[in-house]
Amino acid sequence: TLRTLVFVAWVLGYVAFLLSARRMWTGKYVRSPLVRSLFVNMVSESQAAATETQEWYRCSPDLLGESVQPLFIQSHLDSGTKAFLKRSVEKSSWMFTQLYHSLVSTVLSPMVSRTSINGFLGRGSMFVFSEEQFQQLLQIGTEWRAERLLDLGAGDGGVTEVMGAHFREVYATEVSLPMKWHLQRRNYKVLDIDEWQQTGFQYDVISCLNLLDRCDDPLHLLRDIKRSLVPNTGRLILAAVLPFQPYVEIGGQWQRPTEHLKIKGKTWEEQVTNLSNEVFRRVGFEVEAVTRLPYLCEGDMYNDYYVLDDAVFVLKASDMNGTLPPI
């Protein structure tokens, strides 16, 4: 009986603590100016929201290297991004769901990776680009179609879905078992992380989104990608969080990768230039287009969403002179 009382008291105390930390379950108390405006569907009328989101896409082209400047594409907050943010705000306000997620995460985190916990709970979806931004990067229309897409480290498949409508076959890799289940439910062909290079066919587009800084041997990965692209017309879409801080998750703990990829520069523009002129060229890629986008993740009890700075590149093999295949 005493143990039961202690357990109940602990649960009640835990819930009270989380509620006090959250303090804002309705639109009236939403923290961010952007989120407040999204909540009442007034993004275009909110100066504070405009200021906040402008920082997500801000780039000073003059600070980019001469070879990179003409390749930069200016992106903006669009309807697809707004829709993701609005869903994230709504989900973060589901009090009892967030309490359950927090409790399960606390119990499982010593034994299970954060990615697998999110996959099990069906939370933590990521957003890299909208359909419109994807089409702008590849310079394609809505009707453009190609044969095969491979999304490396696809997570729950949310970003894969944005790209997948343009391909007849969609392949994906993922380490986390719960995330694999999500991908299979979307009818994507899930390949083992050591299998995709040995399928006997090549891919029209390979996406490597925010994986380079979580990979134990990033240069080896880039070389494998180059060999797996369709000659002449194949493209790699690569997103990297900047500033670049590589770590790999092993057994629930973060460690330095075996192959440390050092990116020079302090600003977003300097690191983009270094990646373009040094890292990508070293493995035989050249930049075709680059943009700055927010790397968004669904929120929780403490934040309506999470955001990091992304550089998103379209790369082609340096010996390629072809263009994307016609519709």
Mind explaining what this structure looks like?
A hairpin with a 6-residue loop joins β9 (285-298) and β10. The model is unreliable at 21-46 (pLDDT under 50). The longest helix has 21 residues, at 2-22. The chain has one domain: Vaccinia Virus protein VP39 (Rossmann fold). The protein has helices at 2-22, 33-39, 47-57, 79-92, 95-108, 114-121, 131-138, 158-164, 177-185, 218-228, 268-282; strands at residues 126-127, 146-152, 167-173, 189-191, 205-209, 235-241, 248-250, 253-255, 285-298, 305-317. The N and C termini lie far apart (70 Å). By secondary structure, it is α/β, with parallel strands linked by helices. InterPro entries: METL9, SAM-dependent_MTases_sf. It holds the Pfam family DREV. This is Methyltransferase 9, His-X-His N1-histidine. One of its GO terms (molecular function) is protein-L-histidine N-pros-methyltransferase activity.
In short:
This protein has helices at residues 2-22, 33-39, 47-57, 79-92, 95-108, 114-121, 131-138, 158-164, 177-185, 218-228, 268-282; strands spanning 126-127, 146-152, 167-173, 189-191, 205-209, 235-241, 248-250, 253-255, 285-298, 305-317. The protein has 327 residues and is of the alpha/beta class.
CATH superfamily membership: Vaccinia Virus protein VP39
Low-confidence stretches: 21-46
Helix count?
11
Largest sheet: 8 strands, mixed
- CATH architecture tag: 3-Layer(aba) Sandwich
Quickly count the domains: 1
The total beta strand count reads 10
Taking the alpha carbons of the first and last residues, their distance comes to: 70 Å
Report the β-strand fraction as a percent range.
Answer: 15-25%
Largest sheet strand order: 1-9-10-6-5-2-3-4
Give the structural class.
alpha/beta
Helix content: 25-40%
GO molecular function: protein-L-histidine N-pros-methyltransferase activity
Pfam families: DREV (PF05219)
Protein name: Methyltransferase 9, His-X-His N1-histidine
Organism: Seriola lalandi dorsalis
